[in-house]
Description:
Blueprint: H1 9-18, H2 27-34, H3 41-51, H4 61-65, H5 80-90, H6 100-108
Helix pairs in contact: 1-2, 3-6
Amino acid sequence: MAFAGVLQDADITAALNACKDEGKFDHKSFFKTCGMAGKSADDLKKAFGIIDQDQSGFIEEEELKLFLQNFKAGARALSDAETKAFLKAGDSDGDGKIGVDEFAAMVKA
């Protein structure tokens, strides 16, 4: 698992179970439940690097759609509505993608 050593397996499972049904994903609740909200800036940078699968320095919409799969293989993809809401929550400068500082601010919000 990509987040082994950073997050607890039980916390990840609880966070994924809370949003397993379409329309139930809430980024604030997810970050709190999985334990990411309490992590250091360095840990958040590591998490960003995992989620930024193409290593572009940004998390784009397609990477957000597959966000849950970073935590567990086989987890569902986010719906288009969930993905757009997630992007809107994190994209503070309006450029259509989430940078590392935007990601950290979103996790800590």
